[in-house]
Amino acid sequence: MKDGFIKVAVGTPDVRVADCHFNAEQTVKTMQAASELDVRLLVLPELGLTAYTCGDLFLQKTLLDGALMALQEIVKASRDFKMVTIVGAPLVNSGKLYNCAVAVQQGRVLGVVPKTHIPNYQEFYEARWFSPAPALNSTLKIGWEEVPFGTRILFTCTEMEEFSFAVEICEDLWVPNPPSTSHAVAGALIIANLSASDELVGKAAYRRQLVASQSARLVCAYLYADAGPGESSTDLVFAAHDIIAENGVLLTERDSGETGLLVTEVDVSRLAIERRRLTTFPACLNEGYVKVGFSQSVTATSLTRVFPRFPFVPAEGPDRFSRCETILRLQALGLCKRLSHTGSRGAVVGVSGGLDSTLALLVTVDAFDRLSLPRAGIIAITMPCFGTTDRTRDNAETLSRALGVTLKRIDITQSVLQHFSDIGQESTLHDVVFENSQARERTQVLMDIANKESALVVGTGDLSELALGWATYNGDHMSMYGVNASVPKTLIRHLVAFYAQTHAVPALREVLMDVLDTPVSPELLPAKDGRISQVTEDIVGPYELHDFFLYHAIRWAFGPAKVYRMACRTFEGVYTPQTILKWLRVFINRFFSQQFKRSCLPDGPKVGSVALSPRGDWRMPSDACAELWKLELQAL
Question: Could you confirm whether 157 is annotated as catalytic?
Protein backbone atom coordinates (compact mmCIF):
# COMPACT_ATOMS: atom_id res chain seq x y z
CA MET A 1 0.00 0.00 0.00
CA LYS A 2 3.00 2.29 0.32
CA ASP A 3 3.09 5.02 -2.37
CA GLY A 4 -0.58 4.35 -3.12
CA PHE A 5 -0.10 0.96 -4.75
CA ILE A 6 -2.90 -1.44 -3.75
CA LYS A 7 -2.55 -5.06 -4.79
CA VAL A 8 -5.94 -6.13 -6.09
CA ALA A 9 -7.36 -9.22 -7.70
CA VAL A 10 -10.43 -10.38 -9.56
CA GLY A 11 -11.09 -14.09 -9.49
CA THR A 12 -13.33 -16.70 -11.01
CA PRO A 13 -13.54 -19.79 -8.76
CA ASP A 14 -14.92 -23.07 -10.00
CA VAL A 15 -18.64 -23.43 -9.25
CA ARG A 16 -21.34 -26.06 -9.36
CA VAL A 17 -24.84 -24.84 -10.02
CA ALA A 18 -26.79 -24.76 -6.74
CA ASP A 19 -24.00 -26.51 -4.76
CA CYS A 20 -23.43 -23.78 -2.20
CA HIS A 21 -21.04 -25.74 0.03
CA PHE A 22 -18.78 -26.63 -2.90
CA ASN A 23 -18.87 -23.04 -4.10
CA ALA A 24 -17.91 -21.82 -0.64
CA GLU A 25 -14.96 -24.21 -0.56
CA GLN A 26 -13.74 -23.01 -3.95
CA THR A 27 -14.19 -19.40 -2.87
CA VAL A 28 -12.08 -19.98 0.24
CA LYS A 29 -9.36 -21.61 -1.89
CA THR A 30 -9.37 -18.53 -4.12
CA MET A 31 -9.16 -16.29 -1.05
CA GLN A 32 -6.24 -18.32 0.26
CA ALA A 33 -4.39 -18.02 -3.06
CA ALA A 34 -5.00 -14.26 -3.18
CA SER A 35 -3.89 -13.81 0.43
CA GLU A 36 -0.60 -15.57 -0.30
CA LEU A 37 0.01 -12.95 -2.97
CA ASP A 38 -0.67 -10.16 -0.43
CA VAL A 39 -3.84 -9.06 -2.24
CA ARG A 40 -5.72 -6.36 -0.31
CA LEU A 41 -8.98 -6.39 -2.30
CA LEU A 42 -10.45 -9.46 -3.99
CA VAL A 43 -13.55 -9.28 -6.20
CA LEU A 44 -15.45 -12.44 -7.16
CA PRO A 45 -18.32 -13.02 -9.64
CA GLU A 46 -22.01 -12.25 -9.36
CA LEU A 47 -24.03 -14.81 -7.34
CA GLY A 48 -20.87 -16.89 -7.00
CA LEU A 49 -22.07 -18.74 -3.90
CA THR A 50 -24.98 -20.30 -5.78
CA ALA A 51 -23.94 -19.81 -9.43
CA TYR A 52 -25.73 -17.25 -11.56
CA THR A 53 -27.66 -19.79 -13.66
CA CYS A 54 -29.88 -21.34 -10.95
CA GLY A 55 -33.11 -20.15 -12.62
CA ASP A 56 -36.27 -20.77 -10.61
CA LEU A 57 -34.22 -22.47 -7.92
CA PHE A 58 -33.64 -18.92 -6.61
CA LEU A 59 -37.23 -19.12 -5.34
CA GLN A 60 -36.42 -22.23 -3.30
CA LYS A 61 -35.86 -21.65 0.42
CA THR A 62 -33.40 -24.52 0.45
CA LEU A 63 -31.09 -22.74 -1.98
CA LEU A 64 -31.37 -19.43 -0.14
CA ASP A 65 -30.61 -21.09 3.19
CA GLY A 66 -27.67 -22.84 1.56
CA ALA A 67 -26.36 -19.53 0.24
CA LEU A 68 -26.60 -18.00 3.71
CA MET A 69 -24.73 -20.94 5.23
CA ALA A 70 -22.07 -20.65 2.51
CA LEU A 71 -21.72 -16.94 3.29
CA GLN A 72 -21.17 -17.77 6.95
CA GLU A 73 -18.41 -20.19 5.89
CA ILE A 74 -16.78 -17.37 3.94
CA VAL A 75 -17.05 -14.98 6.87
CA LYS A 76 -15.49 -17.53 9.20
CA ALA A 77 -12.65 -18.27 6.78
CA SER A 78 -11.99 -14.55 6.33
CA ARG A 79 -10.69 -14.34 9.91
CA ASP A 80 -7.34 -15.47 8.58
CA PHE A 81 -7.15 -12.87 5.80
CA LYS A 82 -6.45 -9.15 6.11
CA MET A 83 -7.78 -8.51 2.58
CA VAL A 84 -11.35 -7.49 1.86
CA THR A 85 -13.24 -10.05 -0.22
CA ILE A 86 -16.43 -9.29 -2.15
CA VAL A 87 -18.63 -12.30 -2.93
CA GLY A 88 -21.98 -12.61 -4.70
CA ALA A 89 -25.03 -14.17 -3.04
CA PRO A 90 -28.85 -14.02 -3.17
CA LEU A 91 -30.11 -12.54 0.11
CA VAL A 92 -33.57 -11.77 1.50
CA ASN A 93 -34.26 -8.43 3.18
CA SER A 94 -37.70 -7.26 4.32
CA GLY A 95 -39.39 -10.04 2.38
CA LYS A 96 -37.70 -9.28 -0.95
CA LEU A 97 -34.94 -11.22 -2.69
CA TYR A 98 -31.91 -9.26 -3.85
CA ASN A 99 -28.90 -10.04 -6.00
CA CYS A 100 -26.16 -8.92 -3.62
CA ALA A 101 -22.46 -8.23 -3.27
CA VAL A 102 -21.18 -8.91 0.24
CA ALA A 103 -17.91 -7.39 1.49
CA VAL A 104 -16.21 -9.44 4.21
CA GLN A 105 -12.96 -9.07 6.10
CA GLN A 106 -11.36 -10.74 9.11
CA GLY A 107 -14.46 -12.49 10.38
CA ARG A 108 -17.06 -9.81 9.78
CA VAL A 109 -19.41 -8.56 7.10
CA LEU A 110 -18.59 -4.95 6.25
CA GLY A 111 -21.71 -4.32 4.17
CA VAL A 112 -24.11 -5.64 1.56
CA VAL A 113 -24.75 -3.94 -1.80
CA PRO A 114 -27.84 -5.04 -3.79
CA LYS A 115 -28.00 -4.82 -7.58
CA THR A 116 -29.78 -1.72 -8.86
CA HIS A 117 -30.62 -2.52 -12.47
CA ILE A 118 -32.28 -5.91 -13.00
CA PRO A 119 -32.11 -7.03 -16.66
CA ASN A 120 -35.18 -8.68 -18.12
CA TYR A 121 -34.57 -8.86 -21.86
CA GLN A 122 -33.25 -11.41 -24.36
CA GLU A 123 -31.43 -14.14 -22.39
CA PHE A 124 -31.81 -12.29 -19.08
CA TYR A 125 -34.89 -12.61 -16.89
CA GLU A 126 -33.64 -11.67 -13.41
CA ALA A 127 -36.81 -9.73 -12.61
CA ARG A 128 -38.52 -13.10 -12.31
CA TRP A 129 -36.69 -13.57 -9.00
CA PHE A 130 -34.89 -10.42 -7.86
CA SER A 131 -36.09 -6.97 -6.81
CA PRO A 132 -34.09 -3.84 -7.70
CA ALA A 133 -32.15 -2.19 -4.90
CA PRO A 134 -34.22 0.13 -2.69
CA ALA A 135 -33.53 3.84 -3.04
CA LEU A 136 -32.40 4.30 0.55
CA ASN A 137 -29.82 2.48 2.62
CA SER A 138 -30.96 0.31 5.51
CA THR A 139 -29.52 -2.63 7.41
CA LEU A 140 -29.61 -6.39 7.05
CA LYS A 141 -29.23 -8.94 9.80
CA ILE A 142 -26.63 -11.60 9.04
CA GLY A 143 -26.17 -13.99 11.94
CA TRP A 144 -26.25 -11.87 15.06
CA GLU A 145 -25.07 -8.69 13.39
CA GLU A 146 -26.90 -5.82 11.69
CA VAL A 147 -24.83 -4.66 8.71
CA PRO A 148 -25.26 -1.77 6.26
CA PHE A 149 -27.45 -2.66 3.27
CA GLY A 150 -27.82 -0.48 0.18
CA THR A 151 -26.17 0.88 -2.91
CA ARG A 152 -24.70 3.98 -1.28
CA ILE A 153 -21.91 2.43 0.76
CA LEU A 154 -18.36 3.72 0.64
CA PHE A 155 -15.79 1.27 2.01
CA THR A 156 -12.73 3.19 3.21
CA CYS A 157 -9.44 2.08 4.75
CA THR A 158 -8.85 3.84 8.07
CA GLU A 159 -5.08 3.90 7.54
CA MET A 160 -5.23 5.20 3.93
CA GLU A 161 -8.25 7.23 2.94
CA GLU A 162 -7.37 6.97 -0.75
CA PHE A 163 -8.00 3.22 -0.54
CA SER A 164 -11.74 3.70 -0.94
CA PHE A 165 -14.04 1.48 -3.00
CA ALA A 166 -17.69 1.00 -3.86
CA VAL A 167 -19.63 -1.73 -5.62
CA GLU A 168 -21.97 -2.17 -8.55
CA ILE A 169 -23.17 -5.42 -10.11
CA CYS A 170 -23.02 -6.46 -13.77
CA GLU A 171 -25.94 -4.71 -15.54
CA ASP A 172 -25.39 -1.64 -13.38
CA LEU A 173 -22.44 -0.80 -15.61
CA TRP A 174 -24.34 -1.23 -18.89
CA VAL A 175 -27.03 1.39 -18.25
CA PRO A 176 -26.84 5.10 -19.24
CA ASN A 177 -26.23 6.30 -15.68
CA PRO A 178 -24.34 3.62 -13.77
CA PRO A 179 -24.29 3.72 -9.94
CA SER A 180 -20.50 3.88 -10.17
CA THR A 181 -20.81 7.47 -11.35
CA SER A 182 -22.25 8.62 -8.03
CA HIS A 183 -19.86 6.27 -6.21
CA ALA A 184 -16.87 8.02 -7.78
CA VAL A 185 -18.27 11.47 -7.05
CA ALA A 186 -18.76 10.33 -3.45
CA GLY A 187 -15.06 9.55 -3.25
CA ALA A 188 -14.59 5.94 -4.39
CA LEU A 189 -11.30 5.53 -6.23
CA ILE A 190 -11.90 1.84 -6.91
CA ILE A 191 -15.10 0.37 -8.36
CA ALA A 192 -15.74 -3.34 -7.93
CA ASN A 193 -18.12 -5.07 -10.32
CA LEU A 194 -19.40 -8.58 -9.68
CA SER A 195 -20.62 -9.86 -13.02
CA ALA A 196 -22.06 -12.84 -14.83
CA SER A 197 -21.82 -11.70 -18.41
CA ASP A 198 -22.36 -14.49 -20.90
CA GLU A 199 -20.15 -14.76 -23.95
CA LEU A 200 -21.33 -13.88 -27.44
CA VAL A 201 -19.46 -13.04 -30.63
CA GLY A 202 -18.07 -9.51 -30.30
CA LYS A 203 -19.22 -9.05 -26.71
CA ALA A 204 -15.76 -9.32 -25.17
CA ALA A 205 -14.50 -6.33 -27.14
CA TYR A 206 -17.49 -4.25 -26.12
CA ARG A 207 -17.13 -5.32 -22.47
CA ARG A 208 -13.46 -4.42 -22.52
CA GLN A 209 -14.24 -1.02 -24.01
CA LEU A 210 -17.00 -0.41 -21.51
CA VAL A 211 -14.83 -1.15 -18.48
CA ALA A 212 -11.86 0.88 -19.73
CA SER A 213 -14.08 3.82 -20.71
CA GLN A 214 -15.84 3.92 -17.34
CA SER A 215 -12.52 3.87 -15.52
CA ALA A 216 -11.42 6.84 -17.65
CA ARG A 217 -14.64 8.79 -17.20
CA LEU A 218 -14.58 8.31 -13.42
CA VAL A 219 -10.78 8.54 -13.01
CA CYS A 220 -10.85 5.32 -11.05
CA ALA A 221 -9.64 1.75 -10.99
CA TYR A 222 -12.29 -0.68 -12.20
CA LEU A 223 -12.24 -4.34 -11.11
CA TYR A 224 -14.52 -6.57 -13.15
CA ALA A 225 -14.97 -10.20 -12.05
CA ASP A 226 -16.87 -12.42 -14.46
CA ALA A 227 -18.60 -15.78 -14.05
CA GLY A 228 -16.85 -18.76 -15.59
CA PRO A 229 -17.26 -22.19 -17.17
CA GLY A 230 -18.84 -23.82 -14.09
CA GLU A 231 -22.11 -22.03 -14.88
CA SER A 232 -24.89 -23.95 -16.60
CA SER A 233 -24.50 -24.28 -20.36
CA THR A 234 -28.18 -25.01 -20.93
CA ASP A 235 -28.52 -21.90 -23.07
CA LEU A 236 -25.43 -19.79 -22.39
CA VAL A 237 -21.64 -19.95 -22.17
CA PHE A 238 -19.59 -17.99 -19.62
CA ALA A 239 -15.91 -17.37 -20.35
CA ALA A 240 -14.60 -15.74 -17.13
CA HIS A 241 -13.67 -12.47 -18.82
CA ASP A 242 -11.92 -10.80 -15.88
CA ILE A 243 -10.68 -7.23 -16.36
CA ILE A 244 -8.74 -4.67 -14.33
CA ALA A 245 -8.52 -1.14 -15.75
CA GLU A 246 -7.23 2.14 -14.39
CA ASN A 247 -8.08 5.59 -15.72
CA GLY A 248 -8.77 4.33 -19.22
CA VAL A 249 -5.85 1.93 -19.37
CA LEU A 250 -6.43 -1.81 -19.46
CA LEU A 251 -3.92 -3.08 -16.91
CA THR A 252 -4.65 -6.77 -17.30
CA GLU A 253 -7.40 -9.14 -18.45
CA ARG A 254 -8.16 -12.80 -18.95
CA ASP A 255 -10.83 -14.38 -21.12
CA SER A 256 -9.43 -17.87 -21.49
CA GLY A 257 -12.56 -19.57 -20.21
CA GLU A 258 -10.63 -20.89 -17.22
CA THR A 259 -10.96 -20.34 -13.49
CA GLY A 260 -8.27 -18.55 -11.51
CA LEU A 261 -6.96 -15.20 -10.30
CA LEU A 262 -6.03 -12.00 -12.10
CA VAL A 263 -3.69 -9.91 -9.94
CA THR A 264 -2.05 -6.51 -10.31
CA GLU A 265 -1.56 -3.24 -8.46
CA VAL A 266 -3.70 -0.15 -8.87
CA ASP A 267 -2.31 3.27 -7.96
CA VAL A 268 -4.91 5.13 -5.91
CA SER A 269 -2.47 7.95 -5.22
CA ARG A 270 -2.16 8.62 -8.94
CA LEU A 271 -5.95 8.58 -9.30
CA ALA A 272 -6.38 11.03 -6.42
CA ILE A 273 -3.79 13.36 -7.94
CA GLU A 274 -5.52 13.24 -11.32
CA ARG A 275 -8.90 14.07 -9.81
CA ARG A 276 -7.39 17.09 -8.05
CA ARG A 277 -5.80 18.23 -11.30
CA LEU A 278 -9.05 17.94 -13.23
CA THR A 279 -10.95 20.92 -11.90
CA THR A 280 -14.07 19.74 -13.73
CA PHE A 281 -14.21 16.56 -11.65
CA PRO A 282 -16.96 17.24 -9.09
CA ALA A 283 -16.18 18.00 -5.48
CA CYS A 284 -16.92 15.10 -3.15
CA LEU A 285 -20.71 14.68 -2.92
CA ASN A 286 -21.45 11.78 -0.60
CA GLU A 287 -24.89 12.75 0.63
CA GLY A 288 -26.82 9.62 1.55
CA TYR A 289 -23.69 7.48 1.64
CA VAL A 290 -22.67 5.34 4.58
CA LYS A 291 -18.92 5.22 5.11
CA VAL A 292 -17.76 1.81 6.33
CA GLY A 293 -14.23 1.62 7.63
CA PHE A 294 -11.83 -1.30 7.46
CA SER A 295 -8.25 -1.65 8.63
CA GLN A 296 -5.21 -2.48 6.50
CA SER A 297 -1.58 -2.14 7.50
CA VAL A 298 0.37 0.22 5.23
CA THR A 299 3.34 -1.79 4.01
CA ALA A 300 5.37 -1.78 0.82
CA THR A 301 3.48 -3.55 -1.93
CA SER A 302 5.56 -5.90 -4.04
CA LEU A 303 5.21 -4.56 -7.57
CA THR A 304 4.34 -6.86 -10.43
CA ARG A 305 2.91 -4.09 -12.55
CA VAL A 306 4.96 -3.00 -15.55
CA PHE A 307 5.70 0.68 -16.12
CA PRO A 308 6.69 1.61 -19.69
CA ARG A 309 10.40 2.24 -19.99
CA PHE A 310 9.67 4.95 -22.55
CA PRO A 311 6.43 6.56 -21.35
CA PHE A 312 6.43 9.19 -24.10
CA VAL A 313 6.93 6.72 -26.94
CA PRO A 314 3.78 5.23 -28.53
CA ALA A 315 3.30 1.63 -27.45
CA GLU A 316 3.82 -1.11 -29.99
CA GLY A 317 0.66 -2.12 -31.76
CA PRO A 318 -1.56 -1.22 -34.69
CA ASP A 319 -1.89 2.42 -33.58
CA ARG A 320 1.83 3.15 -33.27
CA PHE A 321 2.32 4.44 -36.84
CA SER A 322 -0.79 6.60 -36.69
CA ARG A 323 0.34 8.10 -33.37
CA CYS A 324 3.70 9.01 -34.87
CA GLU A 325 2.00 10.54 -37.90
CA THR A 326 -0.24 12.55 -35.58
CA ILE A 327 2.70 13.96 -33.61
CA LEU A 328 4.56 14.99 -36.76
CA ARG A 329 1.38 16.51 -38.18
CA LEU A 330 0.72 18.56 -35.03
CA GLN A 331 4.25 19.94 -35.11
CA ALA A 332 3.90 20.86 -38.78
CA LEU A 333 0.44 22.38 -38.37
CA GLY A 334 1.69 24.62 -35.57
CA LEU A 335 4.46 25.91 -37.79
CA CYS A 336 2.03 26.30 -40.72
CA LYS A 337 -0.13 28.63 -38.66
CA ARG A 338 2.84 30.73 -37.54
CA LEU A 339 4.20 31.03 -41.09
CA SER A 340 0.77 31.99 -42.43
CA HIS A 341 0.07 34.50 -39.67
CA THR A 342 3.41 36.27 -40.07
CA GLY A 343 3.32 36.13 -43.86
CA SER A 344 6.69 34.41 -43.87
CA ARG A 345 7.62 32.42 -46.93
CA GLY A 346 10.96 31.37 -45.53
CA ALA A 347 12.36 29.51 -42.55
CA VAL A 348 15.84 29.26 -41.10
CA VAL A 349 16.98 26.08 -39.31
CA GLY A 350 20.36 25.54 -37.72
CA VAL A 351 21.30 21.97 -38.59
CA SER A 352 24.02 20.23 -36.62
CA GLY A 353 23.70 16.65 -37.75
CA GLY A 354 22.07 15.78 -34.43
CA LEU A 355 18.64 14.42 -33.58
CA ASP A 356 16.85 17.63 -32.59
CA SER A 357 17.77 19.71 -35.62
CA THR A 358 17.06 16.73 -37.88
CA LEU A 359 13.49 16.45 -36.60
CA ALA A 360 13.01 20.23 -36.77
CA LEU A 361 14.11 20.22 -40.40
CA LEU A 362 11.80 17.30 -41.26
CA VAL A 363 8.86 19.12 -39.64
CA THR A 364 9.70 22.35 -41.46
CA VAL A 365 9.77 20.54 -44.79
CA ASP A 366 6.36 19.02 -44.00
CA ALA A 367 4.96 22.46 -43.15
CA PHE A 368 6.24 23.96 -46.39
CA ASP A 369 4.78 21.08 -48.39
CA ARG A 370 1.39 21.58 -46.69
CA LEU A 371 1.48 25.29 -47.56
CA SER A 372 2.63 24.55 -51.12
CA LEU A 373 5.74 26.64 -50.52
CA PRO A 374 8.97 25.78 -52.35
CA ARG A 375 11.44 23.90 -50.17
CA ALA A 376 14.14 26.26 -51.40
CA GLY A 377 12.63 28.78 -48.98
CA ILE A 378 13.98 26.69 -46.12
CA ILE A 379 17.51 27.77 -45.33
CA ALA A 380 19.44 25.05 -43.51
CA ILE A 381 22.58 26.49 -41.97
CA THR A 382 25.46 24.43 -40.65
CA MET A 383 27.88 26.42 -38.47
CA PRO A 384 31.03 24.42 -37.73
CA CYS A 385 33.34 25.53 -34.94
CA PHE A 386 35.81 24.04 -32.44
CA GLY A 387 33.93 20.83 -31.64
CA THR A 388 32.31 20.05 -34.96
CA THR A 389 33.22 16.66 -36.38
CA ASP A 390 33.29 15.67 -40.03
CA ARG A 391 30.58 13.10 -39.32
CA THR A 392 27.97 15.52 -37.98
CA ARG A 393 28.81 18.25 -40.53
CA ASP A 394 28.57 15.81 -43.40
CA ASN A 395 25.30 14.39 -42.08
CA ALA A 396 23.80 17.88 -41.74
CA GLU A 397 24.76 18.75 -45.30
CA THR A 398 23.69 15.40 -46.77
CA LEU A 399 20.33 15.65 -44.99
CA SER A 400 19.74 19.16 -46.32
CA ARG A 401 20.57 18.17 -49.89
CA ALA A 402 18.39 15.04 -49.70
CA LEU A 403 15.42 17.16 -48.60
CA GLY A 404 15.93 19.74 -51.33
CA VAL A 405 16.34 22.76 -49.07
CA THR A 406 18.79 25.66 -49.42
CA LEU A 407 22.07 24.80 -47.65
CA LYS A 408 24.55 27.29 -46.25
CA ARG A 409 27.78 26.58 -44.41
CA ILE A 410 28.98 29.43 -42.19
CA ASP A 411 32.11 28.69 -40.18
CA ILE A 412 31.85 30.68 -36.96
CA THR A 413 35.36 29.94 -35.67
CA GLN A 414 36.84 33.36 -36.47
CA SER A 415 33.75 35.19 -35.19
CA VAL A 416 33.97 33.40 -31.86
CA LEU A 417 37.73 34.00 -31.58
CA GLN A 418 37.14 37.70 -32.24
CA HIS A 419 34.49 37.66 -29.51
CA PHE A 420 36.95 36.03 -27.13
CA SER A 421 39.42 38.78 -27.89
CA ASP A 422 36.77 41.44 -27.32
CA ILE A 423 35.84 40.12 -23.85
CA GLY A 424 39.29 38.95 -22.75
CA GLN A 425 38.55 35.22 -22.88
CA GLU A 426 41.43 32.80 -23.38
CA SER A 427 40.64 30.40 -26.24
CA THR A 428 42.47 27.63 -24.38
CA LEU A 429 40.16 27.93 -21.36
CA HIS A 430 37.35 25.47 -22.08
CA ASP A 431 34.85 26.80 -19.55
CA VAL A 432 31.19 27.79 -19.78
CA VAL A 433 32.09 31.02 -21.58
CA PHE A 434 33.96 29.00 -24.20
CA GLU A 435 30.88 26.83 -24.77
CA ASN A 436 28.10 29.39 -24.56
CA SER A 437 29.83 31.92 -26.80
CA GLN A 438 29.54 29.45 -29.66
CA ALA A 439 25.85 28.76 -28.96
CA ARG A 440 25.02 32.46 -28.84
CA GLU A 441 27.01 33.21 -31.97
CA ARG A 442 25.06 30.54 -33.82
CA THR A 443 21.77 32.01 -32.64
CA GLN A 444 22.86 35.48 -33.75
CA VAL A 445 23.68 34.15 -37.20
CA LEU A 446 20.32 32.41 -37.49
CA MET A 447 18.37 35.44 -36.33
CA ASP A 448 20.18 37.88 -38.59
CA ILE A 449 19.82 35.71 -41.68
CA ALA A 450 16.13 35.27 -40.84
CA ASN A 451 15.77 39.04 -40.73
CA LYS A 452 17.72 39.37 -43.96
CA GLU A 453 15.47 36.82 -45.72
CA SER A 454 12.18 37.84 -44.03
CA ALA A 455 12.04 34.37 -42.57
CA LEU A 456 11.40 32.69 -39.21
CA VAL A 457 14.00 30.90 -37.10
CA VAL A 458 12.66 27.43 -36.30
CA GLY A 459 13.88 26.25 -32.91
CA THR A 460 15.35 22.80 -32.42
CA GLY A 461 15.50 22.40 -28.62
CA ASP A 462 13.40 19.61 -27.09
CA LEU A 463 11.36 19.00 -23.93
CA SER A 464 14.05 16.94 -22.18
CA GLU A 465 16.60 19.72 -22.62
CA LEU A 466 14.09 22.26 -21.30
CA ALA A 467 13.43 20.12 -18.22
CA LEU A 468 17.15 19.91 -17.47
CA GLY A 469 17.95 23.44 -18.58
CA TRP A 470 20.47 21.92 -21.02
CA ALA A 471 20.40 24.94 -23.31
CA THR A 472 22.35 28.18 -23.51
CA TYR A 473 20.23 31.06 -22.29
CA ASN A 474 19.53 33.34 -25.26
CA GLY A 475 21.49 30.89 -27.37
CA ASP A 476 19.93 27.67 -28.63
CA HIS A 477 17.31 28.39 -25.94
CA MET A 478 15.80 31.03 -28.23
CA SER A 479 14.00 30.93 -31.59
CA MET A 480 10.95 32.37 -33.32
CA TYR A 481 8.95 29.14 -33.07
CA GLY A 482 10.04 25.96 -31.30
CA VAL A 483 8.54 22.93 -33.05
CA ASN A 484 10.18 20.44 -30.63
CA ALA A 485 9.21 22.27 -27.44
CA SER A 486 6.98 19.49 -26.10
CA VAL A 487 8.75 16.52 -27.69
CA PRO A 488 11.19 14.72 -25.33
CA LYS A 489 14.46 13.23 -26.48
CA THR A 490 13.33 9.58 -26.39
CA LEU A 491 10.34 10.44 -28.57
CA ILE A 492 12.46 12.47 -30.99
CA ARG A 493 14.68 9.45 -31.50
CA HIS A 494 11.63 7.33 -32.18
CA LEU A 495 10.06 9.86 -34.58
CA VAL A 496 13.25 10.14 -36.64
CA ALA A 497 13.47 6.34 -36.78
CA PHE A 498 9.81 6.16 -37.80
CA TYR A 499 10.38 8.72 -40.56
CA ALA A 500 13.38 6.81 -41.82
CA GLN A 501 11.40 3.55 -41.96
CA THR A 502 8.22 4.89 -43.55
CA HIS A 503 8.89 8.12 -45.45
CA ALA A 504 12.48 8.30 -46.60
CA VAL A 505 14.03 7.34 -49.92
CA PRO A 506 17.21 5.23 -49.58
CA ALA A 507 19.68 8.16 -49.55
CA LEU A 508 17.68 10.04 -46.93
CA ARG A 509 17.11 6.89 -44.91
CA GLU A 510 20.85 6.22 -44.79
CA VAL A 511 21.71 9.61 -43.35
CA LEU A 512 18.83 9.48 -40.86
CA MET A 513 20.04 6.13 -39.58
CA ASP A 514 23.53 7.54 -39.07
CA VAL A 515 22.10 10.52 -37.21
CA LEU A 516 20.32 8.07 -34.93
CA ASP A 517 23.61 6.26 -34.35
CA THR A 518 25.48 9.47 -33.45
CA PRO A 519 25.99 10.25 -29.73
CA VAL A 520 23.93 13.21 -28.50
CA SER A 521 26.29 16.17 -28.12
CA PRO A 522 26.29 19.98 -28.35
CA GLU A 523 29.81 19.70 -29.86
CA LEU A 524 31.05 22.77 -28.02
CA LEU A 525 34.35 21.29 -26.84
CA PRO A 526 37.18 20.46 -29.27
CA ALA A 527 36.96 17.04 -30.89
CA LYS A 528 39.52 14.37 -30.05
CA ASP A 529 41.05 12.58 -33.01
CA GLY A 530 38.09 13.71 -35.10
CA ARG A 531 35.56 12.18 -32.71
CA ILE A 532 32.94 13.80 -30.46
CA SER A 533 34.52 14.55 -27.10
CA GLN A 534 31.47 15.95 -25.32
CA VAL A 535 28.72 13.32 -24.90
CA THR A 536 25.65 14.87 -23.27
CA GLU A 537 24.46 11.74 -21.50
CA ASP A 538 27.85 11.31 -19.81
CA ILE A 539 27.38 14.76 -18.29
CA VAL A 540 23.70 15.05 -17.36
CA GLY A 541 22.71 11.38 -17.44
CA PRO A 542 20.78 9.02 -19.71
CA TYR A 543 17.81 10.65 -21.41
CA GLU A 544 15.72 7.49 -21.00
CA LEU A 545 15.99 7.96 -17.23
CA HIS A 546 15.35 11.69 -17.33
CA ASP A 547 12.30 11.27 -19.56
CA PHE A 548 10.98 8.63 -17.16
CA PHE A 549 11.53 11.02 -14.24
CA LEU A 550 9.96 13.89 -16.17
CA TYR A 551 6.81 11.96 -17.07
CA HIS A 552 6.07 10.66 -13.60
CA ALA A 553 7.22 13.70 -11.61
CA ILE A 554 5.48 16.30 -13.77
CA ARG A 555 2.56 14.54 -15.46
CA TRP A 556 1.53 12.66 -12.31
CA ALA A 557 3.11 14.86 -9.61
CA PHE A 558 4.74 11.88 -7.91
CA GLY A 559 7.33 12.55 -5.24
CA PRO A 560 10.99 11.59 -5.78
CA ALA A 561 10.75 8.48 -3.56
CA LYS A 562 7.91 7.02 -5.60
CA VAL A 563 9.56 7.90 -8.90
CA TYR A 564 12.75 6.25 -7.69
CA ARG A 565 10.89 3.09 -6.69
CA MET A 566 9.13 2.89 -10.05
CA ALA A 567 12.39 3.53 -11.92
CA CYS A 568 14.15 0.76 -10.00
CA ARG A 569 11.36 -1.61 -10.99
CA THR A 570 11.40 -0.49 -14.63
CA PHE A 571 15.16 -0.32 -15.22
CA GLU A 572 16.13 -3.37 -13.19
CA GLY A 573 19.11 -4.98 -14.88
CA VAL A 574 19.76 -1.83 -16.93
CA TYR A 575 20.87 0.62 -14.21
CA THR A 576 21.74 -0.03 -10.59
CA PRO A 577 19.61 1.64 -7.89
CA GLN A 578 22.63 3.79 -7.04
CA THR A 579 22.90 5.01 -10.63
CA ILE A 580 19.18 5.77 -10.79
CA LEU A 581 19.37 7.72 -7.53
CA LYS A 582 22.40 9.68 -8.77
CA TRP A 583 20.65 10.87 -11.92
CA LEU A 584 17.37 11.50 -10.13
CA ARG A 585 19.24 13.91 -7.86
CA VAL A 586 20.63 15.60 -10.96
CA PHE A 587 17.15 15.84 -12.45
CA ILE A 588 15.65 17.45 -9.31
CA ASN A 589 18.53 19.92 -8.93
CA ARG A 590 18.53 20.99 -12.55
CA PHE A 591 14.74 21.09 -12.89
CA PHE A 592 14.43 23.59 -10.04
CA SER A 593 17.53 25.67 -10.79
CA GLN A 594 16.79 26.06 -14.52
CA GLN A 595 13.17 27.19 -14.41
CA PHE A 596 14.20 30.73 -15.41
CA LYS A 597 14.95 29.42 -18.89
CA ARG A 598 11.48 27.91 -19.19
CA SER A 599 9.83 31.10 -17.93
CA CYS A 600 10.64 32.85 -21.22
CA LEU A 601 10.29 30.15 -23.83
CA PRO A 602 9.41 30.86 -27.45
CA ASP A 603 6.02 29.69 -28.65
CA GLY A 604 5.72 26.07 -29.69
CA PRO A 605 2.99 23.42 -30.13
CA LYS A 606 1.91 21.03 -27.40
CA VAL A 607 1.71 17.50 -28.82
CA GLY A 608 1.49 15.27 -25.71
CA SER A 609 0.32 15.23 -22.11
CA VAL A 610 3.46 16.92 -20.76
CA ALA A 611 4.59 20.41 -21.72
CA LEU A 612 6.59 23.07 -19.88
CA SER A 613 5.36 26.25 -21.54
CA PRO A 614 4.88 29.09 -19.02
CA ARG A 615 1.74 30.04 -20.95
CA GLY A 616 0.24 26.55 -20.87
CA ASP A 617 0.84 23.56 -18.65
CA TRP A 618 3.63 24.65 -16.32
CA ARG A 619 3.65 27.77 -14.19
CA MET A 620 6.46 27.62 -11.64
CA PRO A 621 8.39 30.41 -9.90
CA SER A 622 11.92 30.67 -11.21
CA ASP A 623 13.24 30.79 -7.65
CA ALA A 624 11.21 27.93 -6.13
CA CYS A 625 13.12 25.94 -3.49
CA ALA A 626 13.87 22.24 -4.00
CA GLU A 627 14.67 21.40 -0.36
CA LEU A 628 11.57 19.28 0.29
CA TRP A 629 12.30 17.15 -2.77
CA LYS A 630 15.95 16.79 -1.77
CA LEU A 631 15.00 15.75 1.76
CA GLU A 632 12.76 13.04 0.38
CA LEU A 633 15.68 11.74 -1.67
CA GLN A 634 17.99 11.80 1.35
CA ALA A 635 15.67 9.39 3.14
CA LEU A 636 16.13 6.73 0.45
Answer: no
